[in-house]
Amino acid sequence: MVTHALDAVDLVKTYPAGRKKPPLRALDGLTFSVPEGIVLGLLGPNGAGKSTTVKILTTLSRADSGTARVAGHDVVREQDQVRHAIGFVPQKSSSDPMATGVENLVLSGRIYGLSRVNAVRRATELLERFGLTEFGDRQVKTYSGGMQRKLDVALGLVHRPQVLFLDEPTTGLDPEARADLWNEVGRLSGDEGLTVLLTTHYLEEADRLAGQLAIVDHGKIVAEGTPEALKAELRGDSVHVELVDPDLDGTVRALLSGLAGVGEIVVEGNALRARVDRGATAVPAVLGALEDKAIPVTAVTVSRPSLDDVYLQYTGRSFRAVEEEAA
Ligand SMILES: Nc1ncnc2c1ncn2[C@@H]1O[C@H](COP(=O)(O)OP(=O)(O)OP(=O)(O)O)[C@@H](O)[C@H]1O
């Protein structure tokens, strides 16, 4: 039998939306489960309900209805057990910038009830684990963004939790530091068997890290599976057309939607994306139609469906477009 490290069943959470307005339904019957040792990527645009879900699972907030278990413990009735079983790395760093890496880790260990000797031992172990040993005695304010993030993750692991929550862990990191952290998270679940719940806005991050993916939209899980399985479920290809003149997007949309085998079309600035039955036959047809109307294009490319196409399929909206709207 598969043991689930996380189980959320029919979670509903509403927030007051102001006078005379109906309450805002942040979670609307959210259900998912995660087997032990897996990285679950909770992917969704701003306001989808990711942070609310994390708050409920980490006992920081209570659902209006529904149930959730973390490491086998009920998040309402067994809060203390849940808190000991989890590590939580919030979006905003919880380390003290004026203290050194070692001091931060030792303090955290002491808060979790470790003796001074054990807290120092654990701090040394974690600094080594994250390649921070030589920086352990430096104040955290002197760390790079990537080093601070690694220390944050180390702080979440001091008490050897079974489940680690990472709330948008790589936001604001440069590509190199992001790739470095991805490797660390991969090792945590792969070599050390930790279950990780990761929330992210980044499709690439979800694709790269998540063994299992849950796409959240309007407080519900709209699709669940491995990134590969979700992409494989979509038949056909994705054709991308980059226009020279963004004002012609309406004309191009009408033109393409008249072609056989061309499905949903999404416009993002001067780029159009269409799902097609077969890329090999659609590209010449698309280029021919554009040439007939003398519409200049910068590029036409064809690719296998991406997670953005998966998102579009299940929500009717492009993930990137939704993100831009919210920005
Ligand atoms: N304390 C609160 N009071 C009122 N509304 C809230 C509160 N917290 C969240 N919301 C609303 O609930 C919805 C879900 O928010 P939530 O923060 O869970 O989304 P999210 O997917 O984590 O978004 P983000 O990626 O921006 O963090 C949003 O519409 C948000 O405005």
From TrEMBL:
Xref: PROSITE patterns: ABC_TRANSPORTER_1, ABC_TRANSPORTER_2
Family under the similarity heading: Belongs to the ABC transporter superfamily. Drug exporter-1 (DrugE1) (TC 3.A.1.105) family.
GO cellular component: plasma membrane
Cited Pfam families: ABC_tran, DrrA1-3_C
Membrane topology label: Peripheral membrane protein
Official protein name in the record: ATP-binding cassette domain-containing protein
Lineage, broadest ranks: Bacteria, Bacillati, Actinomycetota, Actinomycetes, Propionibacteriales
Keywords, ordered alphabetically: ATP-binding, Nucleotide-binding, Transport
One GO MF term: ATP binding
Highest taxon listed in the record's lineage: Bacteria
Single GO biological process annotation from the record: doxorubicin transport
Subcellular location: Cell membrane
ABC transporter domain boundaries: 6-243
